[in-house]
Amino acid sequence: MKNVALFGAGRIGSIHAANLARLPGIHLKYVSDPMADAAQRLATLHGAQAKADPAAIFQDPGIDAVVIGTPTTTHSDLIRQAAAAGKHIFCEKPVDLSADRAQECAAAVALAGVACMIGFQRRFDPTFSDAKRRLSEGEIGTPEMLVITSRDCAPPPVDYIRSSGGIFRDMLIHDFDIFRWILAGETDEAAWLSATGSSLIDPAIAQAGDIDSAIVSIRTRSGRLCQINASRRAAYGYDQRFEILGSAGLLACDNLRPTAVRQMDAHSVRIDKPEHFFLERYRDAYRLEIEHFFQQLQAGGPFRTTIADGVAAQRLADAAAQSLASGQPVTFD
Amino acid sequence: MKNVALFGAGRIGSIHAANLARLPGIHLKYVSDPMADAAQRLATLHGAQAKADPAAIFQDPGIDAVVIGTPTTTHSDLIRQAAAAGKHIFCEKPVDLSADRAQECAAAVALAGVACMIGFQRRFDPTFSDAKRRLSEGEIGTPEMLVITSRDCAPPPVDYIRSSGGIFRDMLIHDFDIFRWILAGETDEAAWLSATGSSLIDPAIAQAGDIDSAIVSIRTRSGRLCQINASRRAAYGYDQRFEILGSAGLLACDNLRPTAVRQMDAHSVRIDKPEHFFLERYRDAYRLEIEHFFQQLQAGGPFRTTIADGVAAQRLADAAAQSLASGQPVTFD
Amino acid sequence: MKNVALFGAGRIGSIHAANLARLPGIHLKYVSDPMADAAQRLATLHGAQAKADPAAIFQDPGIDAVVIGTPTTTHSDLIRQAAAAGKHIFCEKPVDLSADRAQECAAAVALAGVACMIGFQRRFDPTFSDAKRRLSEGEIGTPEMLVITSRDCAPPPVDYIRSSGGIFRDMLIHDFDIFRWILAGETDEAAWLSATGSSLIDPAIAQAGDIDSAIVSIRTRSGRLCQINASRRAAYGYDQRFEILGSAGLLACDNLRPTAVRQMDAHSVRIDKPEHFFLERYRDAYRLEIEHFFQQLQAGGPFRTTIADGVAAQRLADAAAQSLASGQPVTFD
Amino acid sequence: MKNVALFGAGRIGSIHAANLARLPGIHLKYVSDPMADAAQRLATLHGAQAKADPAAIFQDPGIDAVVIGTPTTTHSDLIRQAAAAGKHIFCEKPVDLSADRAQECAAAVALAGVACMIGFQRRFDPTFSDAKRRLSEGEIGTPEMLVITSRDCAPPPVDYIRSSGGIFRDMLIHDFDIFRWILAGETDEAAWLSATGSSLIDPAIAQAGDIDSAIVSIRTRSGRLCQINASRRAAYGYDQRFEILGSAGLLACDNLRPTAVRQMDAHSVRIDKPEHFFLERYRDAYRLEIEHFFQQLQAGGPFRTTIADGVAAQRLADAAAQSLASGQPVTFD
Fold first, then answer.
1. What tens digit of pLDDT does each residue of A14-37 get?
2. Which of residues 256-275 of D touch B (CB under 8 A)?
3. Are C216 and C174 in contact (CB under 8 A)?
4. Which residue from D265, D266, D270 is facing B269, i.e. has the nearest CB?
5. How far apart are CA B192 and CA C207, in angstroms?
6. Closest approach of chain D CAs to the CA of C163, in angstroms?
7. What is the distance between the alpha carbons of residues C185 and C199, in angstroms, rounded to a whole number?
8. Dist. CA A276–CA A153, nearest whole Å
9. By C-alpha distance, which of C291, C124, C251, B265 is closest to D260?
10. Hey, is C247 helix, strand or coil?
11. Which segments in chain B show pLDDT lower than 70?
12. Structural domains of chain C ordered from first start
């Protein structure tokens, strides 16, 4: 039996709590959140204790692992405290809005010898991971090009955007990770990156210093190509797809839909639009990533999404932000 | 908190146990099965007690409800005992292979004043129930014709078939219920039914006195039409679809697929075949029907699938068997 | 160069004329129609002569072949006159509303030694014929069951229905031919047929003595099964599909659509509804059947759709009408 | 009756000849090609005269219009000669590999007062033009982003590539035109363009000085975004799609397929791969563009694809080639 503390009782914390509650051999002991009410409610629902003070949690020798689902700005501090206390760590992306600070976190984790997994949940989506498996088994030959479509259903509040680090660090960070997972891998990182974008949806986003529509091109050292197109708004639902062109074929990950009803009338044939947003789209992925975390902890195996992956995605996001600002591409050594 | 006893620790019993374990306010107290090992294993997994003797369970005043997932031949006895003991009942389809005995069960339940729901889980499938909702909201006008495709991935063992009551009572019983739910309803029952079929898959099925491929036509009192085509084998997976033609359009329920990967190569474009079999296809439906059972118990509301529905579907299955045997249609008053 | 006379300058005649005009080595010499204006217009468009009197056409020794696209009631007379005059014959379905008279026509054609092809154009539809090819190549193993969906976009005028021979002879005749082509073939004809139906769309159709919604079940001698569902109205366009279940898989022929545009918005994902009606849906089939006619005339090979096929489909239509009237199935020797 | 001369008896010339032959009121008088055999064969097939000497054709006062389907390097000369002779011109893309020379052609055409249409046939594809119509009618609100996928089934011979002007001028020229047609229009041209690419398919292509895989990003003056991904090889067929993201939805143009057969077996569900290559995919588009040319000639209306469009697409192709070479984006005034 492993005892776990959860930091963050918001939207993503609630999902992790419910998934932890279903895992045999896992006991959710603490829920911690500055919003005492939210912490108490979530703790009660799952038979855990609400505990405001993180220090008390880190000092509890009965705690084996922590799950961090708090706002981004608190991630690196919590990771470092958890590492110092010898707790294993599952932390939501990103490690930190600064890639350098993220790198320091990674060093602290390595020094402490604890395990640390970053929640790039998309790598656990059954559709995406099945495509990855087919790719690895050579079903489309050698991969040459990756096209990622990544669109939220609607922009977040401008206040959130203001502290989000910008569209590349907040939203495309997932897509940069997909690029690395699918196309680049450990042997063929990005060599050239060009990004541009606009604020087309809401002038308030521009006033907050961000864009809401972005396109990115990446070329790897070996010459493979990746395009990412992203928008903060897709009126038709959460659009999360990618296509891999290989020498012998194509693998496409289409959107998921709530039902398989098809309606035909005098005007058209209609099917459901894609799942509404990330909580619905990645329901299975969130469940599977937490299972993976504890399985690998148990087995002593490597995580599919390491803190090094977190740092590497962050560096790509930084490069994209720099390219947007300068109007010039960024090259990597 | 409601205490529940589960009868049957096999495939379907295990599913009900897992779904019961997730329901807040529900406590799975007993698991009963003649296979003591299976009962013990399932009970342990969910923190319940294995109890071989049904009588002891019915005598426990702490038990509020029973969930029956045992072989068909035991259903009506268990229903009657549960009713006599004042327990609410959730029972897998069918009530009984004899429609008359099913009707006697219904009477016993009514006399005892307990609630009884029959597990026609398809009415809880999100795709099917969304189609039903759209139909009710008039999205395709007045329904005129229903075409049901119902194919298992592979035939069951011939031993099972021998005691199954035949393809109409064992397999098409679900489709007869869909017919009643979607097309006939309370005001327009079947008036004319014609069935035929063949043994095309395995001669052993014919030797066991059954067929493996069946087609059924039904006309309702008001003239609406229904076709059911069924096979014990679909090499491409579990095929569960229906289409409703209405005066203003069509509603089709397509199959579900494990992933949304599309693979294109020199030969074709490929997507996943349908979900493998009923455990996968109706995963959500099994969860939702048990939730519905306890919600309605709590609320005192009617069940979506009553014991009367169970009897009515049984009568249609009997008629189909009779039509097959005689080569003539059956008419209903 | 072959000289051809076309009988009928209506909707279907115009299609045949345009397709004849494109065929190298074919010269459309005459267009004949009781409506002199229509004949003249069509003749002028394609550089042919309008000629009212069929006798004059049959007496012209320069005419090699006739294409008959006139109303059904005139088919058998024109076939017999053409045969007597030694002209090869392409005739629209059906040969005659009476299967006996159709059989007499077949005898007259055989006696005269002319070639005669019946226009079951669906056998030339690229989608349907590709499915037939795959079936023949064993891609889904042995065929076991055929499900045909056959729905017009809207009912014809009641006046037309009155002289149409009824829904089975006018509309399902095509589906009976598909059944024979796909499932029955030359070695396994229908053994048992049950049909029923209703008038659900327009009471005037019932008053004209016909139904507008029909379902048919057929069992072949070897036990294969076929279901046909048909309606005079599909609000969503012309619905022409069939599915063949085989021992190793399924072949489905889906509908065709005018464009491949997909539109997604806040409500749904929409694609085009099926092609509007038979002129659009079977555009390619009409072209290909006429090409086939002249190719086989040239090569001396057999037609894909013979007058014997016309007679056989007619007998199935008669049986369906009889089954509907009696409420009982029809068995064949 | 308009008399037309066709230059070029190759693949594309043959298509234009067949489409001209079907047009009422159009007479194909001459076919001209340096390959005398090919010219003679095509001329004979359509009842025209083969004529080697272009000068003789231009001097024939009976010729109203010319259709130019010769190799790219001859386009601008033929256009200028035709303009000088007062003939109306339909010319395949591109006008010229040099945008400056293309601009001079446009000036010569304007001076001569003849009509000149450039064969960007994609604007006549029924699927693409239906998407354009929906966009114009506001069905997805304001367009914000365009993603174009453009992949040939297989690379052309390296000899062809050597004189093709490179992938941007030879292949993406069509995509640049789509960008202008769909997203930019007359009021919002490209402001910033970044292109990169690689030779991933065949080293001989790199040796010929070209790439075979390319990605392009464009931002318009108003901030709209376009991504183009292109490859000389798609093992699964000719891949020609685009998607327009608008403020209220998305319009996607999917690929077309030869048939609507769906095959399901123990492994997967399979549909046809896309049409093989441009001759099949754009069959309707080639027919419709020539119809449009003569309709507009007759009506005196503007062409959908002018020589100015040809020049503008060429400038974008030049910019892409320059961006690839320099590794830097290109900005436009």
1. 999 999 988 878 999 999 999 999
2. 257, 263-274
3. no
4. D270
5. 22
6. 34
7. 32
8. 7
9. C251
10. coil
11. 186
12. 2-114 (3.40.50.720), 123-331 (3.30.360.10)
Residues 6+ apart with CB under 8 A from C275: C237, C238, C255, C256, C257, C258, C281
> Which residue in the block uniquely carries the two structure tokens 């990645």?
A282
Q: How far is B263 from chain D (nearest CA, A)?
A: 9
Q: What is B252-279 written as a DSSP string? A: EEPPP-S--EEEEESS-EEEPPPPSSHH
pLDDT per residue as tens digits for the range C121-143 = 999 999 999 999 999 999 999 99
The H-assigned helical ranges of chain D are 11-22, 36-45, 54-59, 75-84, 99-112, 126-136, 158-162, 167-170, 173-179, 203-207, 278-281, 283-299, 307-326
What pTM, to 2 d.p., does this model score? 0.96
Alpha carbon distance D252, D216 (integer Å):
19
**Taking residues C298-317, what's their average pLDDT?**
95
Alpha carbon of C24 to those of A329, C149, D320: distances in Å?
59, 36, 47
Q: Where are the alpha helices (DSSP H) in A137-179?
A: 158-162, 167-170, 173-179
Which of C106-133 are b and which e, b meaning 16 or more Cβ less than 10 Å from the residue's Cβ?
A: bebbeebebbbbbbbbbbbbebbbbbbe
ipTM: 0.95
pLDDT score, position A21: 84
Tokens linked to A147: 């096209």
Q: Is A198 an 8 Å CB contact of chain D?
A: yes
Residue D185 has pLDDT above 80, yes or no: no
Q: What is the distance between the alpha carbons of residues A245 and C269, in angstroms, rounded to a whole number? A: 25
Residues of B in contact with A138 (CB under 8 A): none
For B20-69, write each residue's pLDDT tens digit: 988 878 999 999 999 999 999 999 988 899 999 999 999 999 999 999 99
Q: pLDDT digit string (tens) for C315-326?
A: 999 999 999 999
DSSP type of residue A72: G
Taken in order D124, D128, D130, D135, is the CA torsion positive or negative?
negative
Contacts of D99 (CB under 8 A, 6+ apart): D311, D314, D315, D317, D318
Q: Which residues of C touch B198 (CB under 8 A)?
A: 219, 223-225
Q: Looking at residues D324-329, what average pLDDT do you find?
A: 97
Residues facing C195 on adjacent strands: C216
The mean pLDDT value of chain D amounts to 96
